[in-house]
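Bench log. Compound arrived from synthesis this morning; before running ITC I wanted a structural hypothesis for how iron/sulfur cluster sits in the protein. Inputs:
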Amino acid sequence: MDEKMTRRDALKGMFFAGMGLAFSGPLLSNSVRAANLPGARTGLPGPWKEAPDGTRIDTRTWSKMGETLGMLGLGCMRLPTLSGSSGGFGRNTPLDQDAVNAMVDYAIAHGVNYFDTAPAYGESEKVTGNALSRHPRESFKIATKISNMHGRATLEAGQRMFEASLKNLQTDYIDFLLLHNLQDVNGFNSRFGNNGLFDWILEQKKAGRIRHLGFSFHGTNDSFPALVDRYDWDFVQIQLNYVDWKEMSRGWGGSSGNTTAEFLYNYLVGKGIPVLVMEPVKGGQLANVDGNIAAVLKERHPDLTPAANALTFVGSLPGVMVTLSGMSNMEQLKENISLFTGFKPFNQEEHDFMLNVADLIKSKGQIPCTACAYCMPCPFGVDIPGNFKIFNNASDALLSTEKNKRVDEKRQAFLKAYTAQEEAVRADACIGCKACLKKCPQHISIPQHMERIRELAAKI
Ligand code: SF4
Ligand code: SF4
């Protein structure tokens, strides 16, 4: 461990020297069930067809914008890759076009008509565009984003990004365009307002190249109303799941922040703005809950998996336009489609039960990393989401003061998984440069957590 510390300290010294620095709302009623989706045309080229058994997911109609949308949307950030892992933000891992085609075909046949991608999701736009182009344009809605983050916030760069999106998606209009990852009005001004990009976007909307305009949000409660009130948005995308409903935790050792999905949701509903939901399963965390939590959920809803519990919590909120789930394989897609076909919403008591489960999960002290990879690549090679996943799998034991067999076994399992990683990607390699900090939409104190993970591994 001493040798590793020496290497890390040397890198740290070089880096900082280089910088010239010294060191509650009402739930869904059963009446929210709608008819068939529009756009079901026959006799057209492409693989579109009805599901053999005629099943389709439930829909909701948004009369102001004139859309009927399937309650489940296919999030295209974690599409299957040729290497078998899932894709992600900024990861240029080659995607598996055949697997994506099969998922898109199955989704459309079962009534999913909302597909969400972004220029920042590696090959996602292109591969999603290829898959969708095999279907009648009227049978699906495309959502993509202007992801002009990280120093690319010029008018020209934004224009190029939008034109590239149209080309990649093989279409001449975007159904739902989002300003990607807004946190406050200052960010809006610097990325869209002051450079004239927002005015240009409004011109494109007027010209019919954008049908509905919204933004995705990753800021705090305080900054939300001003952004929402900045324009007459058609919809807004927020992070919403049962753990984040009362407080979006920044995790052990981090700031508690000031964001609650409940506030964001209620603010939008109060303004009559449809709510688009991302991270309903918190990047997979709520699908892979600790064994004790899984048992509690199973006892209450024996027929639902942990992921289905999380999705039902979201889908039961009547202001939710579409619940986006970033799916990586056909199995997940089938499971989710089945859940939203004849969807059974939670009642108030079940909603409250899920909030109690959220408290239990929070007591485990997990780092709320959604594995979105927005923070990657780390300039020093650290696999940030990978280290957090290893920590989260044993967080309760690592933070426990108890000494017993279960705690000891979990700690050893943590150490085994931690050291099984290549040395260059472990938390040990973090030099605390903070390059990742601003990129994390969950506002996780990444360097601080890396330091603690390294200490824990050393201690064990
Ligand atoms: S602070 Fe973040 S970006 Fe910098 S070395 Fe550590 S993990 Fe990598
Ligand atoms: S640390 Fe933040 S940015 Fe990085 S993968 Fe996790 S949630 Fe995403």
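What the model suggests: The pocket of iron/sulfur cluster (ligand 2) is lined by residues 369-375, 384-385, 388, 439-440, 442, 444, 446 (CB under 6 Å). Strands lie at 59-62, 67-70, 72-75, 114-116, 141-146, 174-182, 210-217, 235-239, 275-278, 320-326.
ITC booked for Thursday regardless.
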